[in-house]
Design brief:
By secondary structure, the chain is an alpha+beta fold. The protein has 17 helices and 18 strands. Strands 1, 2, 5, 6 and 9 form a five-stranded antiparallel sheet that branches. It has a four-stranded antiparallel sheet with strand order 7-8-3-11. Strands 14-13-17-18 form a four-stranded mixed sheet.
């Protein structure tokens, strides 16, 4: 925990009651489930802007939700504390780790087995709560209940979960963890900013932006006789560019919200849309057509750009944004798609901040040092090469999204080896284009390729050669996050690849009962980037693959499998009715209900009766750590 967080927490704890406003309203109750079971319920209403942390978080992070028993007789806990609510997983820069939390409302539930006609249960629910600026000290919901279980109690069927195809009360029973597992934070907001910044640098090199740099800086220098004023105007111009693009990122966040952004990564329909968008952008970069905004937009903003003061400068920046959209639009689109799939609520905003910062820097720098303008390379055919190269990159990444949809719906049109073959072809075509063998209709006249073009072409050819072994099952660890899983490989996979024996939880448990081997449950997703990283970086290690194949029954449960269930079942979650329509919905429900988590990858080891034998283990691509987990 950072010093800032500790200070804020201590400050809140020491504040007078009138200054410390509790943003969480908690109500606790108890309900009879059957003759020998009762259920402790804790309903939390969470104010806007605040969030309550989930169960089972790693050490060193925020306070997780947990239940404490101060006095108990005639009863005992049945399983661990679990929840009914929409859980969000995201990287938290304050704690430098991935955390899981709830917004708006959540219900924490603890089942209790009554062992005596008269029971007494007393204790407290403890949880942590924060907003974007501060955290409350650990909160407590005290409870005390005395009574008897009722034979006429409402049955478990009240949630409708027992009607889910394949549900079994014993094998689906919530588990209690003795080990909180291993969690390694993902790329985080810093990585998103860097990606956006690199995208902005690439946008500067396009023919829609590069020629505007000297023209705009010269305008500012001529506009004012005082160089200091010219520099000030250029800086304001850069700030205006940042404002425009950050506003776009904020609009995306407000439109979709954190939970919707988090779900995009495994939504097959959305991935098809992303695939089509990136193909469209790639074709635009190839010169088949231009993506432009309505001409009236640029005319309207340009007419206001001549005004004096900050307003005129702002409209100049807005005009630049609109006029350059045919080049920057595809890059922005790609960045927003990447940001949306990260699941971070601030991801689009941070991505656009990085992009606009890179776009704005040259205008300020060249206004301060106008003599450097003469050293800028002149506009020419090299910018067409930048655009076409970006087109190939976007076309290659579009296949990743098509692959997610292909696997989710079971079409089988894009196995791993075909995916790798298409990347090889694209890399070769890019290399041929860079050395002048391949041309597009709107290219500049042919010229002898320069040194940079030759180097870039050589890199493209080398990448193509490096990909070739992937046609026969080489792991290709550097790009494993983008390629389909090894299980889709048509040709011999060889090596130490691991394939799941089952994709059905119940079948795996029956096989475990027959063989005596424990079950390694792999909650995964077709669109899960970190799942592919684990499979390529960890499961291909000979020690890991031998251990899994020899000592475990491996079952992979895809939470985005779109195969329809025989019957749609409605389950009450987070105060709303959630329909369980597909196999993926079912496995996602199993993960939430039994294991109290919904992020992937997520690994646990269970016995044939569904009881926990080890775990959980989440994303940590360290082979030694995974081996310790298996042991």
């Amino acid at each position: 925990m950072s010093l800032i967080t500790i200070f804020l927490t201590a400050l809140l704890a020491a504040s007078p009651a009138g200054l410390q406003e509790n943003r969480i309203k908690a109500v606790h109750s108890i309900e009879n489930v059957s003759q020998d079971t009762v259920r402790l319920l804790f309903d939390l209403s969470i104010s806007k802007g605040w969030h309550v942390y989930s169960t089972g978080l790693s050490d060193g992070g925020p306070t997780p939700a947990a239940i404490r028993f101060d006095s108990i007789s005639g009863a005992r806990p049945a399983g661990s504390l679990y929840f009914d609510g929409k859980e969000t997983a995201a990287y938290d820069a304050t704690f430098d780790m991935e955390v899981r939390y709830f917004e708006n409302r959540v219900r924490f539930i603890q089942n209790m087995l009554v062992t005596d006609p008269d029971y007494h249960i007393e204790g407290a629910l403890e949880y942590g709560a924060c907003n974007d600026e501060s955290c409350l000290p650990p909160q407590h919901v005290d409870f005390k209940h005395d009574g008897k279980a009722s034979a006429t109690a409402a049955p478990t069927a009240a949630t409708g979960i027992e009607a889910v195809e394949g549900y079994d009360a014993s094998t689906w029973a919530p588990v209690t963890y003795s080990d909180k597992g291993s969690v390694v934070a993902g790329r985080g907001l810093a990585g998103l900013f860097l990606t956006g910044f690199l995208g902005g640098l690439l946008a500067l090199l396009t023919p829609c932006v590069w020629p505007i740099i000297p023209m705009t800086v010269s305008f500012f220098l001529k506009r004012s006789q005082k160089r200091g004023r010219a520099v000030k105007d250029a800086v304001l111009y850069g700030i205006s560019i940042i404002t425009v693009y950050v506003a776009l990122g904020l609009a995306i966040t407000l439109l979709f919200g954190a939970s919707a952004l988090n779900s995009l990564a495994t939504n097959a329909t959305v991935n098809i849309l992303f695939f089509l968008i990136l193909v469209l952008f790639a074709l635009s970069f190839f010169g088949l057509f231009e993506i432009t905004l309505p001409s009236g937009w640029s005319t309207g903003t340009d007419s206001k750009a001549g005004k004096a003061g900050f307003g005129g400068i702002f409209f100049m920046a807005l005009t630049l944004t609109i006029v350059s959209f045919s080049c920057t639009g595809p890059i922005i689109g790609f960045l927003l798609v990447d940001a949306a799939q990260s699941g971070h609520i601030l991801a689009p905003t941070v991505g656009m901040l990085g992009f606009s910062t890179a776009m704005a820097i040259p205008f300020a720098i060249f206004a301060m040092f106008p003599g450097w303008l003469g050293s800028l390379p002149k506009s020419g055919g090299w910018m067409d090469k930048v655009k076409v190269t970006l087109g190939f990159i976007e076309l290659a990444f579009s296949l990743k999204f098509l692959s997610v949809a292909d696997m989710a719906y079971g079409w089988g049109i894009l196995p791993r080896d075909l995916f790798v073959l298409l990347w090889i072809i694209m890399a070769i075509l890019l290399g041929l284009y860079l050395i002048g063998v391949l041309h597009f209709r709107k290219d500049s006249p042919r010229t002898k390729p320069g040194p940079l073009s030759v180097i870039a072409a050589a890199a493209a050819f080398m990448f193509a050669i490096w990909l070739v072994p992937g046609l026969w099952g080489a792991p290709l660890k550097a790009v494993s996050a983008f390629t389909p899983p090894m299980s889709t490989q048509l040709f011999s996979t060889g090596g130490n690849s691991v394939e799941a024996q089952f994709t059905d939880y119940d079948m795996a448990l029956r096989e475990s009962e027959r063989t005596g081997k424990p079950v390694l449950v792999d909650f995964t997703g077709y669109g899960c980037v970190n799942c592919r990283k684990m499979e390529a970086a960890v499961w291909t290690d000979a020690r890991v693959s031998d251990r899994i194949c020899n000592d475990y029954i491996l079952v992979s449960l895809y939470v985005d499998d779109k195969t329809a269930l025989k019957e749609t079942v409605t389950v009450r979650e987070n105060g709303t009715d959630v329909k369980i329509r597909t196999v993926g919905d079912k496995w996602s429900l199993l993960q939430r209900h039994k294991f109290g988590a919904n992020a992937q990858p997520f690994y646990v080891i269970v016995r044939s009766d569904g009881s926990l034998a080890g775990g959980p283990y989440t994303f940590d691509p360290d082979v030694e750590s995974f081996l310790r987990f298996l042991k």
